[in-house]
Fold this sequence. Notes:
Strand content: 5-15%
Helix content: 40-55%
CATH topology: Glycosyltransferase
Number of domains: 1
Structural class: mainly alpha
Oligomer: single chain
Low-confidence stretches: none
Shape: globular
Bound molecules: glycine
CATH architecture: Alpha/alpha barrel
Amino acid sequence: MTINTTAATQLETAPWVNEAWNQTVQKVLRTSARIGAEFPHASQGGQYVLEATHWWTAGFWPGLLWLLHEGEGNADLPFRRIAEECELKLDEVLDGYDRLDHDIGFMWTLTSVINYKQYGGELSKRRALKAANYLMGRFNLKGNFIRAWNPWSAGEDNSGWAIIDCAMNVPLLQWATKETGDVRYKQVAEAHMETVRNHFIRKDGSVRHIVRFDPQTGEVAEYIGGQGYGPESAWSRGTAWAVYGLTLAAKHAGSQELLDTAKQVSHFFLSQLPEDSVPVWDFRAPEETKALRDSSAGACAACGLLLLSELVPSAEAAGYRSAGERILRSLYENYGAFGQDEEEGLILHGTSHYPERKNMDVPLIYGDYFFVEGLARLRGDVTIPWE
Ligand code: GLY
């Protein structure tokens, strides 16, 4: 079965979107003077903490800079230069191999793929294909899943672990098939997403974070709470990875089944939102922790909802688009740090890892990235790296 991808109708950009975009450009011009070609993750006390090159978030800052670079009409701003320096720095990780895991997709889609899409450089293409080949090497044939992390400590065997976040890594494989004509990349991407449909999405549309398979037989062994509250809870960022990842997968595969699942997860996500449309960190966390929001989950899901609005019949499109826009507008008006020059983050109140009590109630670089991608989608003038 196939879906009809309708061309996005050119809608007038709402004034708040252009205002938010312009404020973002001004703020990133200031923050990029300090951050430069480094790899921010979470902002603490107003400044982004910089991580090592192999950390999974390394692509988001250069990705955000690429969006601004293109959205500003390739103007003579420092964004492209810094993004390319970041891409170059990532070579030590790509050549190092042992620190690579499923997050290869996040890292090279937002650096080399986006650079190649905009400028067609051979070196960027080669880097992205190399990353895609590494990602292929993590596929488990019995369980039809891409392995998540490497062992965290000597002797640990986590070769049967798969995580929902990887739904956002497989677009790299779809890109590799488009680029090379080799269908194996696409086959692995689609097999992994079928496993997501079968084992990560519950009947009510809520989403598991980690499924442990027996790596020998491919049977499900255990559900693990991971960054959510517990195995049966509903971590909001994991739900957002599923909203966007399934929607992208539906578009790439032209699959009605994937589209239906993307809609099912989106309906669950939307049904759980509080009054201001920005999710709590886990929809099934104990009440006493629910003051903690995860703005990054809102930003990511909003991008998925905007894409979903382009894939569904026109009678359904407005609902998804207005839901995506509503979330982004609330992030801008209620969570934005635009009046605060002493804060480097764009969007406040993200939660990175509640179970480990890490980076709670802070700006997160992926929250900022998806906020900017969401604005770019609403403006309709930028290459989207994952598509
Ligand atoms: N593990 C990626 C995330 O924090 O969503």
